[in-house]
């Protein structure tokens, strides 16, 4: 069932299955890249994040970044899983970001749902991205790409 949501100050009809309608509600919107005011692509793939962006230091080998909200039940379970994996693997840090308080970063990285997990390599480059409650084995496998 379609639902209405605000998008950039205009009312846009959206769908709960992740697909988007155009403003008239007649068909799917073009899925082109999102651009900032200067025309640069806003995409998390290949983007580098630093300690200033995250508000915490990066891990020596990799960093698990979790975007969550206060009333998100899967976010609490994700926090436990990521903290456990970060404790198991040396040089890996876990950083949790409250999506409601860091809206500029959420918009820049196109975070639409919580929990969203980004896996960063040692240089802060986004190498993997996942939405929803991850399995521990999947997190460890994703760290294999970053390390």
From TrEMBL:
InterPro entries: Thioredoxin-like_sf (IPR036249), Thioredoxin_domain (IPR013766). Residues 1-23 are annotated as: Disordered. SUPFAM superfamilies: Thioredoxin-like (SSF52833). This is Thioredoxin family protein. Signal peptide: none annotated. Residues 61-141 form the Thioredoxin domain.
